[in-house]
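Issue 218. Parser rejects a valid record. Input:
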Amino acid sequence: MKPKYIFLSLIIFFSFSALAQEKQVESGIKRDTVASKMLNEIVVSALRINIPLREIPAAISVVSGAQLSTMTKTIAADDALRLVPGVKIDNGTGGSRVHVYIRGQGVLTESGFRGIGVYIDGISINNPGGFAPDLYDVDWETVKNIEVVKGLAASMYGASATGGLINITTKDGGDKPVNSSLYTSAGSNGFWKILGQVDGTQGNVNYRISYSHTQSHGYRVHQSYMADNLSEKLTWTPSDKIKITQALTYTSYFNQNSEGINLSRYDTVGHRAANTDAIRYNEFHKTQRLTGATTINYAFAKNQDVAVRGFIRFNNYQETSNNGDDYKPYINPGISAQYNLHFGKENLFNHLSLGVDYQSMKMTEHNFAVPDGDHINDNRVDSYWSEEVFDLNKLLINQVIRQRSTGVFLIDKLDIAKKLYALLNVRYDYVYNRLDSSTISESKTFQKPTFRIGLAYDLATVANIYASYGSGFLAPTEDELYNNPVKYGGFNSLIKPSSSLGGEIGVRGEIGKKFYYDITGFSISSKDEFYRYSVPGRGNNTAFFGNMGESKRWGVETYLSYSPLDFLKFNVAYTYSHFQYTSPDSVSGHWIPQCPQHILTAEASLKFLKYFTATLNIQYESKWYIQVDDSIYNNYTENGIVRSSSERTGFTVANANLNYGWKLGSLKGDLGIFCKNMFDEQYFGFTEPNNGPDYNSYQAAPGREFFVSLRLRL
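Output the parser choked on:
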């Protein structure tokens, strides 16, 4: 985006600011709708025990419900986590099929993300191997708040959380016996969404049930998606000692897969183009998932309590492409138990937790061959919701995949003195994988202990200092283990787990209840880094994985929030990343792909004319690299243009939101208008390395989009 447009946006915004200040002086009304909770008010549960933020020796970001409610198009993680430093989200569809990285962990996956734990109301969406396939189960309109733990501080969750943790808490029911709400949104590219919810409190029972439907044609050709989400949550509190929460989630998600394109197709067709194979083979993903969960919290003594969580997940998944039609239905049960003991004296109080996590999964995979391109009817109609497939009577893969994971952990929080706190956790993980077919029967086991220790010193309200050091363990996920580069079916025998050691030091605080800051420096050394590659003859879009060597990742994460007036607030999130390979010698000094050095998000929110809130958001990412080694290009000429490097230029986009909130008797509502990428910046949102004839794969990001939404609550 050109600098003059940024300056124009700021001029318009501050013109409204002056008007708002004038109106407040005239009316004498004090407004605090853009204010947020400060350090002393925030309690975090993401570390498996409830701890005030000022006592936590870790970098943690909290996204409040107030921040989420200002979003007009609440369907994607990139909107929800836009102000969390250290987190990068590539949204390739406009929906919830995203790639998530935290401090460089999770890059280069074929689908979903690994090394990052995701929990919804205490229930993991990661499978036993640590893989999170998507975020389809999250309806962001029902989310109460989000806690993001960055780096090895999340190691208490095991192999699935080496890079960090996203802890999502959904809303509870309201105080009245019956409440109802309606949310609807519509916008560019055929997008619309509608959600209805009923909730309330009846005696000692709190409940919420919602259903939503979302669909869009997508901003690229062959990129439509459609989702149905049912979410039910019921909490029964029969006494002050026991609390039982039952939850049920059903998700149906269909999305066409436009795939990445090479630069030649981008140059000649444009940013809306789809891969030709994606259209020809009607490539799509279809997910149907049902998850039931129960959580029991029981305080059987004044200083002792236990929490038990159990879930079972049924999932049907289908993915069709030019490489085959893949069916992967699975069943995934799990249970977690944690015992908490609190004891000690005032100057040395101890919060001790012992626990175990267990999951299993059984997946039956059938991959059918599809005809080559010459034997597919190119004249067929490519409709938005077509599920047409071209299976041949030939099985490429017919196997049963079983996984089990067990993690045993100890957490010890010590209140050493009035303002000094220590946190120690140790964990042992065991991950078992087995594959059975008519010709193969083999198993692989990964196991490793990990630890972390940290200190927090609450020096004063203006300066809360923290530091930590620990280790992490990252097992290959199903995509990495079962995508066999040697042949169809069987394990990838060339890959092994990755391990990490690292630390962080930071300071956070608030000044005068108007300015809040959080600055963290971190350093992580990893061995057996994962990387991805393709194999000629197995299809250009098939990804395989191996171990690269060692890497060094260090950086700085900064979050600033300033509210000079009750109606005006500024937020800035900035991440500096220096991520490079250190071995082997062939790639030493090369940058880890897909990781920009600079990511900046700046946002200003303004309350004016009593009922209006305007938000201006600027997002910037610097250049990044696609290949591990740029020398693969060797001045390759494509479409008459010399491609001498896999380096991609960065981008800057601006987003604007205007919200009108009102109340009429018992009916509350707000109307929102949202413009995303308001200056129509053309850029790539996601890139993938490819050593085939097309070299790399590019997925264009959306251009300018408009959305309008309406919320009603009775």
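Fixed in the parser; the record now loads. The first strand starts at residue 43 and ends at 44.
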